[in-house]
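User: Structure tokens for both sequences below?

Assistant:
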Amino acid sequence: MHDWIVIGGGITGISLSYELQKSGFSVLLIEQHQQLQGGSSLGYGGISYWSGTTTVTQQLCQEGIARQRNLSHELGMDTEFREIDLLLTLTPEDDRQVILSQYKDCAIAPTFLNPQESVEREPQLNKQGIGGALLFPHAHINLPSFVKAHSQAFQKLGGETVYAKVKHLLTDGDRLSGVSTEQGEFRSAHVAVCAGAMSRILLKASGVNSRIYYTHAEAIDTEPVDLELRAMVMPADNKRNVLEGSTADADSDAIWDVFGRELLPPSIDAGAVQYNDRSIRFGQLSRVLTDPHAAIDAAQSEAAIRAEIAKVLPQLAELKGKWRNCLVAFSSDNLPLVGSVKEYDNLHLFSGFTSPTVYVPALSQRFAAHAQGKADDIIPLLSPQRFDTKLRNGYAIS
């Protein structure tokens, strides 16, 4: 019997497994796929440590970037961490002051660049297709490298990994006793669900309600190319964030349990990043579909992504690439769900991260210390139970 079972081996699950094992717990990580799937395989890997807008999120951003800067050394394997410029582009029609107001509370204020200055910073930009850009100091990692480095370190510490699909949770009265998988049953004192978007489906099958939602994200990956991007490029008016914020109020929560619904029209945020091997990922198209396995017309989506990226980074639109898609989890207040659920006090969530690369390393470390009995001033604020009416005021985050 293990102290902890962690379900899901992406960026959240492997980080939490490593920190728990490092803290002296015995950990069994259960992951369905031997090849990395989901948001951890298709995310951009940007670390937006400038983006904290409250005391809590700014503290987590500071802790997160500090951890990321040190992880390659600590883990003994390169996560491909690097400092990089982030350019958030405006369209020619955007009102600069309105856009800037969206970033007024950020820990680090942006620098506005006019179209000419933007192109000087990133020559691949289309000067006629933008109204300028907001410049932020940023950082970046390769997500598969991050996962691989943690996995290697986790195993060296004695952590165990099983590749199997979790069928359901095992209960014993008012407590969880373990999980049932295709390879049999596994017992533990605690279970942490780090399955991203699929966390909702797994928990629902076991009678546990969770305020986790998801978008279907789509992007295009190229092979290594001669073309060079100097900066990470994203739109300043991010449609995905708006889309997420408009789909998850408490009154409409039940609709997420009805498969086959499209809650909002799809949106595209034209952005791109180049990796150390010179491959490029560009996209991103987002859909709000309640069916996690919904069929998507790949050719139609790819054409739509290329049409949008052509306005901002025209040379990228012509590059050969492979269309890919995954689910991206989020919560109704854009903060992760971290802690025990009300149904079982030894069943924990560690999911719903809109900004996993900045928050996950810091919160994994905090979670592990909290599991040892150390007091923490942030973990309770992120409790999955914060959405309960009785607790809402007590869990206000500021």
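Moving on to the next sequence.
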Amino acid sequence: MMLDDVRKTIKRYNLMDRGDKIVVAISGGPDSVCLLHVLHSLMSEFKLELFAAHLNHNFRGIDAQMDAQYVAKFCEELNIISFVKSMDVPKYAKEHGLSSEEAGRVLRYEFFDEVVEKVGANKIAVAHNQNDQAETVLMRLLRGTGIQGLTAIHHGRGRIIRPLLNVSRKEIEDYCLIHNLSPRTDETNLEPIYHRNKIRLELIPYIQGHYNPNIIESLAKTAEILKKDNDFMEEAAREAYRQVKIDSREGCLELSIEGINKLHHALQSRIFRLATEELVGKKEALEYKHINNIIELLQKNETGKKILLPMGIIVKTSYNKIIFTTEDRGEEEGFYYQISPEDSITIDEIKGKITTKVLMRSDIKTISRDKYIKYFDYHKVTKQLNVRSRREGDRFWPLGLVGSKKLKDFFIDYKIDREKRNEIPLICDGDEIMWVVGYRISENYKVNNETTKILAIEYKTFLEEE
């Protein structure tokens, strides 16, 4: 019966393909021994190639060594290649300020990855079961979490698969008994010395005895239901994230404050986590308090304000943008304003004003030589006209040169002091620079014999007006 259930789980969640090479994590306890034996039974059906990986954590002295010996012997009986490694987990935990459980998990998965690379495997199978799922839901509920946290353990994520996640610990123990597997018992699992052990040995039995005898199944079912809801919300959040993202480059991304403010709060928090994921590769870096800090910053929307978050993340606001970055150069805040073809706007950051007009080419007798008044081919402007400060990675094609160059190199050529570069306005067509104000226009927007309409742009400082 259990073999059929595992087979259904594998197919339902698409955990395995024919011909997979799988590293199976095995401690020697009932769960992992059952997992390896079940997968071994399915080898022919799925054309699997299995490898076993066992890490001695050095917590339990001679007992841990006997676990390793048991694993090696068990794998030999099944004709499965095993990899056994011993590491000083207590020492690692102390050196890195981690709990014993956290340190063990980090080193286990590092070891599994080593074995994967060595044998050319494409998946890692671990033995989490239905009881583990229930315990995780309770742990997170007691700690405080959202829907995503309550989805708890997933059947598959990346190359990690969990074929036993729908199987109860009782079924696993019965399976081991029926097949005379004689797994090892870690005595520390029977002592309420860890948070998870206390939930397993004290809280769950109490709930079973006083409130719900089927609490394990109920909690596992709850996680499954919430996972479907979470998947839907995550898909909606990713679509909203694509819409509000203005710009993205290495170490920095910008989101539209106006766009975010239109969204439901549930999507806002997910968008912040998606931004964090894109920036540092880990959206779990943000806790509930960090999300609230970002929302508070967003509501104030004061240019130049910033907050510091985990993993070196800096979040700051700049007019219509909220910026997530890992770079803090101490430069002045940038600016960005949209412009209409017939417009006049004030830029307080640089104490200047931009004026635009559309003229007929036939009405222009001479092209302006004023370095603060420039003419452009109106029909070549195809995107949102704007004025902004420089950004990392900016390029443009200076009039008269062959090809584009980095704006940074252009500033160097003109010997413009570093602290002055943020003060130079850039007139842009979308992201493309049309004019480095006061210096050079772009070859792509110059007026020629085919031009019929001209976009005239003038820049003035407040001092010039006075």
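User: Anything stand out in the second?

Assistant: The radius of gyration is 31 Å.
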